[in-house]
Design a protein that fits this description.
single chain, 492 residues, alpha+beta, 7-stranded antiparallel sheet, 6-stranded antiparallel sheet, 12 helices, 31% helix, elongated
């Protein structure tokens, strides 16, 4: 395999002038940090802060148990996203500083800063088995213990949550049927799976708690001081959260009466865990059976973890080549339009055949066992040949490719080099293309709502699609403000 990575098993022919140029670092691939990434992440942080504030208001206004559980889940998800975005922002700042230091260093020689391609990682069919006692499951004895659970899935700054599931002793497994796809994963990814639980039998009704809290504030602080305190906690244009329009400060999540989710178990999956089949992975369990949110887990979870590197799904290089025919006239060449993608170099009669999805005239295998070398066609010639060797049934077969100019050969050799490097990093994910089914749009969970309830009016708060409706303080509708005002006035 034509690759500088020592872990690659293929060998590369040495000695050509082209290879020496590449080895000197002439065709390096460097990572350039985009300053616009900072502003993009900052916008996401601003959005999640507004979402978190909306979830807090929604949680305080919920009067039904299932409503409160869903609002608390949204609050937990927003808080996790904020922390992930803050970490990513800090990482980018450090990378920018390191990049400046590297550029200023005059003693730095050629560096191999080649980066592997990104890809998609999908997790599906998530199952977490439960281990109930015989008296609980078979004999249905003892107090019925019921918990609301959901999973947070994080890979880098991409964070997704599953639907909430109510679990009791009638279930043998916690099942999350949705497929979650991460679109910007590298081969060194770490996918963290967190299982959160909340006892749904606890008395966390939000309907009466604000009145009790308001009553205590009235008696201890007085009515006027209580109103000022609430006004100070409301995010406004010049509040500490918005910082007067400057970069927002990340403040702790306001304490809101209602259900609280706790981390019950977690695990981290990486490249070695990927296999195109249903597999079992170990879980690290938090808490014990004395915790109200406790569920009897086996200590494992089952799921299907698949990946599609971009080198397997996208064209990495394409262009016109001449291929010497095998077993025929050695001077006879065939003009083809070649496409490097996945584990093969597909050769088409015409470029239009690619766009028309017509089968290629023939293909040349490109895998981890392939050997590629560039040879001088003629000392006085401006072009070079590319030899691709594969073993078929114990016999070595070599295809010879020719380009019209040395620059074209350079581009093809660099593409092959990068392709082999991608395959060496993604390993088993490049043996064959794994299937990933795109997730279907999530349907809203059926929630019993009372006609005209405050939750019914504020439900858009919990959905990202309604960002402009109620999430920006200066755009809060007068109707919702009136509802909130009357709600707190009634508390007194």
């Amino acid at each position: 395999m034509f690759c500088r990575n020592q872990t690659a098993r293929a060998t590369v022919a040495r000695g050509s002038a082209l290879e020496m140029e590449i080895r000197r670092g002439r065709f390096r691939r460097s990572a350039v940090l985009d300053p616009s990434q900072d502003s993009d992440i900052q916008k996401k942080i601003d959005h999640e802060i507004r979402m978190r504030d909306g979830a807090c208001k929604l949680l305080a206004a919920c009067s039904q148990k299932d409503q409160a559980l869903e609002a608390a889940k949204n609050l937990q998800t927003c808080s996790t996203r904020i922390m992930a975005y803050m970490s990513e922002l800090q990482r980018l700042k450090e990378a920018q500083v390191m990049q400046k230091v590297t550029r200023r260093s005059s003693d730095a020689g050629p560096m191999d800063d080649r980066l592997p391609c990104k890809g998609r990682v999908a997790i599906s069919d998530l199952r977490i088995p439960l281990m109930w006692k015989d008296t609980e499951y078979f004999k249905n004895k003892g107090e019925l213990h019921r918990c609301a659970v959901f999973c947070l899935l994080q890979l880098g700054r991409e964070i997704f949550d599953t639907d909430m599931v109510i679990v009791d002793r009638t279930l043998t497994d916690i099942c999350f049927d949705s497929t979650v796809v991460f679109n910007d994963a590298g081969p060194g990814f770490e996918l963290r799976v967190e299982l959160y639980s909340c006892c749904s039998e606890e008395d966390f009704s939000a309907g009466s708690t604000p009145r009790k809290l308001a009553s205590k504030l009235s008696s201890s602080l007085g009515r006027s001081a209580g109103k000022k305190l609430r006004a100070a906690m409301e995010p406004g244009p010049c509040s500490p959260v918005n910082n007067g329009g400057a970069a927002p400060l990340l403040l702790p999540v306001p304490s809101v009466a209602g259900p609280k989710y706790h981390l019950l178990a977690h695990t981290t999956l990486s490249l070695p865990h990927i296999q195109d089949s249903f597999r079992t992975h170990d879980l690290t369990i938090s808490g014990n059976d004395e915790c109200s949110y406790w569920l009897p887990l086996y200590g494992s979870m089952c799921c299907r973890l698949a990946a599609q590197p971009r080198c397997m799904t996208q064209q990495m290089m394409s262009g016109r080549l001449r291929v010497k025919q095998l077993g025929g006239d050695p001077q006879r060449w065939t003009d083809v339009y070649a496409v490097l993608k996945g584990a093969s170099l597909s050769c088409y009669r015409r470029q239009e055949d690619v766009e028309a999805s017509i089968e290629p005239a023939f293909t040349i295998a490109i895998n981890k066992e392939t050997r590629i070398r560039a040879t001088e066609k003629d000392p006085d010639s401006k072009a070079q040949n590319i030899c691709i060797s594969n073993h078929y049934g114990g016999e070595e077969v070599t295809h010879t490719l020719a380009t019209d100019a040395r620059e074209d050969t350079h581009r093809w050799m660099e593409a092959f080099w990068q392709h082999f490097y991608d395959m060496s990093q993604w390993r088993q994910c490049c043996d064959e293309l794994m299937k990933i089914e795109l997730p279907s749009p999530r349907k809203p969970a059926p929630v019993a709502l009372k006609q005209g309830s405050l939750y019914h009016e504020m439900a858009p708060l919990a959905t990202p699609s309604c960002e402009g409706l109620l999430l920006q303080d200066n755009a809060v509708s007068a109707e919702i403000r009136a509802l909130l005002s009357s709600y707190y006035n009634d508390s007194y």
